[in-house]
Amino acid sequence: MEKSIAIVCGDQIEDLVIRPGTTAGEVIQSAGLPKGHALSRKDGLFFAETEEIYGIVEDGGKLFASPPAVVGSQEQGIRWAS
């Protein structure tokens, strides 16, 4: 049995069909998004790339794709006083 889902990434929407065994990583790839994007539900809970999503997503449901985010950085040249 197949399910139709929509992948929302910014202002773009990609309609896809998934089957049992489909993973979040396969959905990202099928939607034509670069590797590193993360897939989540509306509540913000992210799926692991290898997580099977067929049983979690309803037919006609929406998932949200987010590009990789930098959560911190290291600046060069900083010296701590001793």
- Percent of residues in β-strands: 25-35%
Which stretches are low in confidence, meaning pLDDT under 50 for 5 or more residues running? Answer: none
CATH architecture: Roll
Rg, nearest Å: 17 Å
Report the count of strand segments: 4
**Spatial strand arrangement across the major sheet:** 2-1-4-3
| Distance between the first and last residues' Cα | 65 Å
**Helix-strand sequence:** EEHEE
Largest sheet: 4 strands, mixed
Question: What structural category characterises the helix and strand content?
Answer: mainly beta
- Principal-axis shape equals elongated
Q: Average pLDDT value?
A: 88
Task: Please give the oligomerization state of what you see.
Answer: single chain
Q: Tell me the count of domains.
A: 1
CATH topology: Ubiquitin-like (UB roll)
**What is the CATH level 1 assignment?**
Alpha Beta
- The CATH homologous superfamily corresponds to Phosphatidylinositol 3-kinase Catalytic Subunit, Chain A, domain 1
Helix and strand topology:
Elements: E1 3-9, E2 12-18, H1 24-30, E3 38-40, E4 62-66
Parallel strand pairs: 1-4
Antiparallel strand pairs: 1-2, 3-4
What does this protein structure show overall?
The relative contact order is 0.27. The protein has one domain: Roll (Ubiquitin-like (UB roll)), CATH 3.10.20.90. It has 1 helix and 4 strands; from the N terminus they run ββαββ. The mean pLDDT is 88. It is mainly beta and 82 residues long. It has a 4-stranded mixed sheet, covered by helices on one side. A hairpin with a 2-residue loop joins strand 1 and strand 2. It starts with a strand and ends in a 16-residue tail after the last strand. Helix content is 9%, strand content 27%.
